[in-house]
């Protein structure tokens, strides 16, 4: 390493270093999420960062394919490349010839691959969690990174709605423990489809023809409705009008929304939805994943009665092309920001890898946004910043060497201790303690060595006391 | 995701999935290492997986450069590529034009970059640990992966030998806690250089000229000596003879080794080494990093007297071109395998990124090998396999719904509990508990619902008992 060109240190755009305090705070969040996942019986798995591009490509739409980070094959990768592709500078075509692997884009497609690949070694229903970075070659911007963590829990191979109930409780528990006030909104994709279907039928009747196919009609309608939070009824109506829809055919929806908002009891809401569902029965053939929507409503409405931050919201439309059953979205009540957790149920997750037909249901925490909210609201508790409890400082190497066995004894008693390693001015040593947020300093000088009475300074209050080592030991072990 | 081509699930060669039991065991190892690191005041940092190739290239020798995984630039990456390079199919030259980023190769170069880039935000001496995967496009073989974890603790910016002492205690502590019998060998690169220097002077005297430059001579000598463990004195002599060295000039070394082996006390060993050092003083100008070798010997020999698995070994030569001071290597006493931890001190770590002159010293645990040893010797304790403590099973959905609030109460009391989600045969539910290693099952049937007495089955002993829910709660919370 002797003749290395000096390089100005830099990072690829959209990636980050984390300072010790940041890692400690992030670990605090991860720790709470993990402990709740484990309380509900989820087990951690890991998959490699590198996946074959054959696994990843085509799973995230065309835009997603372009956002995949692709890894150059090793060695003389151009050897067998096609000459015409090279001379045409056809980047897209060449990629297939020179890059076989890429960085994972999310944790869901790797999960599907994993479940099929290890199906004989897994216990079903398979409850796994996975906390790991993923990569997307998106344009970086505030709060959006190219390398960021996902934090997912999923259940594969069970159609029971109990999973939905438990996942909702997990969302509730985690944010309660993090001390973040949230609203957990949930919906069922079939309800959206049924509303779309009622509208579609009305449009057909009144116009005899719409220019859109049924599926596209559903999709356009749901996309527009999803914006109701941001643009209100007026905005949604405008959007529908622009698309050429007949607004009078939407009256039923506004009436429905109004009645739902006015309903006071769960039973009332339940009855209103049932009515809507019945109205949509004619010609509706969208295949639901599991037991049936009425069970969903009955079960979930009932179970969530006790959780006042869980709200059914039939305009919620997240992950349009992906989820087929229940969907969730969690937002902070105190900080305006996008969703900080989300999830849903998807049919046939494993089908793309030739696995047997299995439904999956899962949630994902947006740790980067949760971090920002906790910073903004100052929600990190002091002890999230795991740091050294005591620093021993000294006036000479002899003092330092006297301290070493004492330090070791404290460490054996499970106290996190440091001994300042170098000969340095007292001021510098104290500065080290301050900068690292170490709450106690023990000063070792010649007097202390002779008397056996050590001076302990509380760095926050500035007070100091003399203690024998035995007193010190019980003082710090009691403080754990 | 409707029209996806089905793909047979596979992984890139040299990468791995981890099953839940494997992750739990790996986390057990990481957990112990982390807790010891933190007891000694090290703080965790994170750096991105993606680094600029300008950061990585040239730091690991030419072979290392070839083993770097390079990431294709996004978008139309061929647009500005040189036409001649393309038509010549010059892979090497093209790489520089189409790949700006790569995957980190180790955690040390990123640390150097990090320290320089964030020097104003860090507290020095900077004690950090970092546990994360790294990538090398090596040929995969048994026990060697392309994506594997490193687990490092380093101190940057302190020349004190106390760091060496503490790192040695950390090595000792971690393996004690993991229950692995090890030998921790240590050496100082300057001792090797001085032995090489004595030999070099003798060769010069006897032959008036050796064909090798001084540095190459040192290097060849040390490489040959490093093999003494594997090939013995005979083997080393043969190697020296093949290189054209005059074996009679090596007599001093064998005498030295013999005397060291026969020495009984630390004081005796200390005297023998001092003698060797004195003999090497003429013309020796290799710059030591810090305080001086005699302090190294005095300090370390003395401090390690109490640790009987720490051995000074002056033939240890690890990391020839990298380390400049103390070096360590740890091997298992029970399983024949390469080193399972190692480390050393290196001068000027941060120089390559234009940082001010700072010395670094650190150790690294080989977690993959530690895992293999612990498996082979069955050293993982039962409770390393963090799993659900209790599974509630049931005969009907009504039974299941009765169980749900009980399950939630246990979870609130911090017990890890699962409720089997689906309607299924009792046998299938029991199989689930067995396969997941869940030690207790609570059976809920109509009788139990009526009587309030629940049947708890101990899955290991097969015994079962009836308990009220209150009894159950105290039973499981006591078992934490």
Distance between the termini of chain A: 44 Å
The assigned structural class of chain A equals alpha+beta
Strand order of the largest sheet of chain A: 1-5-6-11-10-9-7-8
Largest sheet of chain A: 8 strands, mixed
Largest interface: A-B, 117 and 116 residues
The whole-number mean of residue pLDDT values of chain A reads 90
List keywords for this structure.
homodimer, 480 residues, alpha+beta, 8-stranded mixed sheet, 5-stranded mixed sheet, 16 strands, 17% strand, globular
Concise account of the structure shown:
Helices cover 43% and strands 17% of the residues of chain A.
Structure description:
The structure is a homodimer of 480-residue chains. The first copy, chain A, is of the alpha+beta class. Chain A has helices spanning 20-39, 53-56, 61-67, 83-87, 91-98, 108-117, 162-178, 189-207, 214-225, 228-242, 251-262, 266-279, 293-304, 367-376, 397-412, 426-435, 446-451, 469-478; strands at 43-44, 50-52, 70-71, 101-103, 126-135, 147-156, 182-188, 310-312, 326-332, 341-346, 360-365, 390-394, 417-419, 440-444, 454-458, 464-467. Chain A has an 8-stranded mixed β-sheet. Chain A is globular. The model of chain A has no long low-confidence stretch (mean pLDDT 90). At the A-B interface, helix 1, strand 1, strand 2, strand 3 and helix 4 of A face helix 1, strand 1, strand 2, strand 3 and helix 4 of B.
């Amino acid at each position: 390493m002797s003749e290395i060109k000096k390089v100005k240190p830099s990072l690829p755009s959209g990636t980050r270093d984390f300072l010790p305090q940041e890692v400690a705070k992030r670990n605090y969040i991860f720790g709470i999420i993990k402990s709740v996942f484990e309380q509900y019986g989820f087990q951690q798995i890991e998959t490699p960062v590198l996946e074959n591009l054959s696994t990843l490509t085509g799973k995230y739409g065309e835009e997603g394919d372009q956002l995949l980070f692709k890894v150059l094959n090793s060695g003389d990768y151009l050897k067998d490349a096609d000459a015409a592709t090279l001379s045409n500078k056809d980047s897209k075509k060449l990629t297939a010839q020179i890059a076989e692997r890429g960085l994972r884009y999310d944790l869901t497609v790797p999960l599907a691959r994993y479940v099929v690949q290890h199906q004989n070694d897994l216990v079903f229903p398979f409850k796994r969690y996975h906390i790991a970075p993923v990569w997307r070659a998106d344009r970086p911007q505030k709060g959006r990174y190219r390398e960021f963590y996902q934090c997912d829990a999923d259940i594969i191979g069970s159609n029971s709605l109990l999973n939905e109930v438990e996942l909702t409780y997990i969302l509730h528990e985690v944010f309660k423990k993090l001390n973040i006030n949230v609203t957990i909104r949930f919906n069922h994709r079939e309800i959206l489809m049924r509303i779309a279907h009622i509208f579609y039928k009305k449009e057909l009747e009144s116009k005899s023809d719409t220019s859109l196919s049924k599926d596209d009609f559903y999709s356009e309608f749901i996309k527009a409705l999803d914006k109701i939070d941001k643009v209100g009824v007026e905005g949604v109506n405008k959007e529908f009008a622009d698309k050429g829809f007949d607004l009078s055919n939407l009256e039923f929806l506004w009436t429905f929304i109004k009645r739902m908002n006015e309903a006071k009891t769960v039973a009332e809401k339940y009855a209103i939805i049932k009515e809507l569902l019945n109205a949509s029965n004619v010609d509706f053939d969208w295949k639901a994943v599991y037991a049936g929507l009425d069970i969903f409503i009955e079960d979930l409405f009932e179970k969530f009665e006790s959780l006042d931050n869980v709200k059914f919201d039939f305009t919620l439309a997240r992950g349009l092309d992906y989820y087929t059953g229940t969907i969730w979205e969690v937002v902070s009540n105190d900080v305006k920001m996008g969703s900080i957790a989300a999830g849903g149920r998807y049919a046939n997750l494993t089908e793309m890898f030739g696995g047997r037909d299995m439904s999956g249901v899962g949630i994902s925490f947006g740790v980067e946004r949760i971090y920002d909210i906790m910073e903004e609201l100052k929600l990190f508790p002091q002890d999230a910043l795991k740091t050294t409890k005591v620093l021993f400082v000294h006036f000479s190497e002899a003092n330092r060497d006297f301290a070493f066995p004492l330090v070791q004894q404290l460490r054996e008693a499970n106290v996190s201790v440091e001994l300042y390693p170098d000969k340095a001015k007292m001021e510098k040593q104290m500065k080290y303690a301050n900068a690292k947020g170490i709450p106690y300093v023990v000063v070792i000088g010649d007097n202390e060595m002779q008397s056996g009475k050590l001076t302990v300074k509380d760095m926050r209050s500035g007070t100091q006391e003399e203690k024998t080592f035995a007193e010190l030991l019980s003082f710090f072990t009691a403080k754990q």
